[in-house]
Design a protein that fits this description.
Elements (H helix, E strand, L loop, with lengths): L9 H17 L13 H28 L4 H19 L5 H29 L3 H24 L6 H21 L1 H6 L4 H24 L9 H24 L9 H25 L5 H25 L8 H21 L3 H23 L1
Helix pairs in contact: 1-2, 1-3, 1-8, 2-4, 2-6, 2-10, 3-4, 4-5, 5-6, 8-9, 8-10, 9-10, 9-11, 9-13, 10-11, 12-13
Length: about 375
């Protein structure tokens, strides 16, 4: 089947700006308590809220990727959705129960909006493959939107309603994996899809630089802030190296690994930045920081490397590289635990490890 050829449009970039803002807002729920730790509840909510925004953005992105948005109706849908994403972002609160009505309601409106776009496409085409794909995606979005509205009604305990809401989001997020065959029958424009995800990730790196700025006082620049900035730069270089040199953007694929790996990339990047910011400001326990940073780097590095391996430009055995990388990472964890109470050596070790891993990745891509 012929794949639609298109470039990332200014409408899509405009749309992505508000999502980058929204995802950066999620960090506000990760506040350090009196014990200098994040609570398990706030970490769970961070993962959940990131999943919500990633799911909404992904469904709209995949629609634009396959069916284009170069018409007035699609542009109007984007502007309508942008307003509700703003509402969604402003509903983020450390007391999630307090804003659940607005948050879940806005989520449902967005799901119905995207479902309607798929429905209109289904009615306007004679292609049976496209009809089937649009029908399945519209159904799951409508079901999730309906469940979201049900959870804002005053019935039962809030914990039950939130669990139902979270379950519906999880099913919606990962339902496309079940539809792999239908999605492969109408593959993505992989070049456009990779560009869209990389540009959005770039926006998130921009938010990371803003986090670095929050640790700097105009008349006092600490070495911790400098090393924090170096960490962000190396993370960016790592992601960019894989995107530029490690991915075959001409592949015919449903892009499911690229799509779902970026949830973990977004989580890993967002969590590591919040952790670094609090560590540089001396507001978080070093041991907790070390362990959580290790988890966040597994998400970010693992998600990035998964794309390099699955969408490789050439036939290559990555098993030796992966095996050695696991050993390198284990060694870094040991060193981090030994240096956790000494900020400067610890941060230097972090950046050194990432630079070393970046060097190894570049060697694999030559």
């Amino acid at each position: 089947m012929q794949v639609l050829k298109k470039e990332v449009s200014e409408f899509e970039l405009f749309y992505d700006l508000i999502f980058a803002y929204a995802i950066s807002r999620i960090a506000s729920i990760l506040f350090v308590g009196a014990n200098q730790l994040f609570s398990f509840q706030s970490l769970g909510e961070f993962l959940m809220l990131t999943l919500v925004f990633w799911t909404i953005w992904t469904y709209q992105t995949v629609f634009a990727n396959r069916f284009s948005i170069k018409n007035k109706i699609s542009a109007l849908f984007l502007f309508f959705d942008m307003f509700w994403v703003i509402v969604l972002a402003q509903s983020i609160n450390v007391d999630f129960e307090k804003t659940h009505f607005t948050f879940a309601g806005a989520t449902s409106i967005l799901f119905f909006s995207i479902a309607l776009q798929y429905y209109l496409k289904m009615k306007s085409t004679e292609d049976l493959v496209v009809k089937k794909l649009c029908y399945q995606l519209a159904i799951v979005l409508c079901a999730s939107g309906l469940i979201g509205f049900i959870t804002i009604l005053p019935w039962g305990a809030y914990a039950i309603r939130f669990s139902l809401y979270a379950f519906s989001i999880f099913i919606t997020a990962f339902f496309p994996i079940v539809m792999k065959k239908a999605l492969e029958d109408f593959p993505t424009n992989f070049g456009h899809l990779t560009e869209r995800y990389s540009l959005f990730t770039l926006l998130l790196f921009g938010e990371a630089v803003i986090a670095v700025a929050s640790t700097i006082v105009f008349n006092k620049i600490s070495i911790g802030s400098v090393l924090f900035f170096l960490f962000v730069v190396v993370m960016f270089l790592f992601y960019n190296a894989v995107y530029k040199s490690g991915i075959d953007r001409q592949k015919s694929t449903a892009g499911l690994v690229l799509i779902h790996s970026h949830y973990f990339i977004f989580v890993g990047l967002g969590l590591s930045i919040v952790l670094y910011e609090n560590y540089v400001n001396g507001e978080i326990q070093p041991l907790f920081f070390s362990l959580c940073l290790a988890i966040s780097l597994v998400c970010f590095l693992g998600g990035t490397l998964a794309n390099m391996i699955i969408y490789s430009k050439r036939e290559h055995n990555y098993l030796p590289f992966i095996s050695k990388s696991v050993l390198y990472f284990a060694a870094w964890v040991v060193v981090s635990l030994l240096l956790k109470d000494f900020m400067i050596p610890f941060l230097v070790a972090n950046s050194t490890f990432l630079l070393f891993l970046l060097y190894k990745v570049k060697q694999e891509l030559v």
